[in-house]
């Protein structure tokens, strides 16, 4: 299993926190019929994306990208010490898996220059902060945390009406520490990092395009959770705020990168999680590299 990839002058590390069973396929994908599941079961199981009980297998991970100028962490995963009672595998975790994975890539928390979040869901912001003497502090002390303005404003509004635990423990402490900036869709970091708006899963969800002269790699976040969504782009997960919009966004994204050399780095596909988009019938596949 490859944890490190090269693309142009980028080095990309996968920082895996969990790779595990998640939810039954038909629960997570409301439009997945029994017939369609049966038709796709064999290849999904062969890809380790589906277990013997038809439960989806997902990877929960960050990516760290080293450009010639910066070290950037994309999506900070689940985190430790955080009350997540609805997800037992995430609730009040105390393991050292994530930090060991970071160290195995030759990295420490002090090496990260930027933390960028595709969106602000619980499993993409968790390691933004860590518990120190009873309070939440930035995990990456030298980093600027970059949030898309549309996404940030949306969650601030939601949280103001009904408190959202991951916003309280993993986003607001970054704001209070003055380590953040909110940016528009035209934001870039140097000549290597650009934003691609990909709304649907959340209103302000974005993907990240990396590479100097071209998109050497693209980080899709929760644009898609499972390989079957590449095969059937209009198939949305129940967590998508706008399932129709998410389907349109997904197809446009896959069409954009189909038959190119751009590495597609997915958030949740089973290992190796990284591939190149190729056409498959009326849909697509992410062919592992």
Structure summarized in a few sentences:
With 289 residues, the protein is an alpha+beta fold. It has helices at residues 25-28, 34-46, 97-104, 149-161, 165-170, 172-176, 228-231, 243-257; strands spanning 4-7, 10-24, 55-66, 71-74, 114-116, 129-132, 135-138, 144-148, 180-183, 188-189, 193-197, 206-210, 217-221, 263-266, 274-280, 283-288. A hairpin with a 6-residue loop joins strand 12 and strand 13 (217-221).
Account of the 3D structure:
It is built from eight helices and 16 strands. With 289 residues, the protein is of the alpha+beta class. It has one domain (4-211): 4-Layer Sandwich (Metallo-beta-lactamase, Chain A). 47% of the residues are buried.
Task: Outline the low-pLDDT stretches.
Answer: none
Sheet of most strands: 7 strands, mixed
CATH class: Alpha Beta
> How far apart are the first and last residues' alpha carbons, in Å?
10 Å
């Amino acid at each position: 299993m490859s944890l490190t990839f090269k693309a142009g002058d980028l080095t990309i590390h996968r920082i895996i926190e969990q790779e595990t069973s998640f939810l039954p396929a038909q629960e997570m994908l409301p439009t997945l019929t029994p017939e369609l599941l049966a038709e796709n079961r064999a290849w999904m199981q062969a890809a380790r994306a589906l277990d013997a009980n038809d439960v989806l297998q997902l990877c929960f991970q960050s990516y760290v990208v080293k450009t010639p100028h910066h070290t950037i962490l994309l999506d900070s995963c689940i985190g430790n010490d955080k009350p997540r009672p609805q997800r037992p595998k995430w609730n009040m975790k105390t393991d050292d898996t994530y930090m060991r994975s970071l160290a195995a890539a030759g990295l420490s928390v002090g090496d990260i220059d930027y933390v960028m979040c595709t969106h602000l869901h619980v499993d993409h912001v968790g390691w933004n902060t860590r518990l120190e003497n009873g309070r939440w502090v930035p995990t990456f002390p030298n980093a600027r945390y970059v949030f898309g303005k549309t996404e940030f404003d949306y969650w601030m509004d939601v949280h103001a009406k009904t408190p959202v635990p991951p916003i309280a423990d993993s986003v607001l402490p970054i704001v209070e520490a003055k380590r953040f900036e909110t940016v528009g869709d035209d934001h870039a970091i140097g000549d290597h990092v650009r934003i691609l708006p990909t709304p649907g899963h959340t209103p302000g969800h974005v993907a990240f395009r990396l590479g100097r002269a071209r998109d050497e790699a693209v980080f899709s976040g929760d644009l898609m959770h499972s390989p079957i969504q590449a095969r059937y782009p209009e198939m949305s997960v129940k967590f998508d705020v706008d399932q129709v919009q998410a389907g349109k966004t997904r197809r446009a994204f896959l069409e954009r990168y189909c038959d190119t050399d751009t590495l597609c780095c997915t958030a949740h596909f089973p290992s190796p999680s990284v591939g190149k988009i190729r056409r498959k019938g009326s849909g697509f596949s992410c062919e592992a590299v």
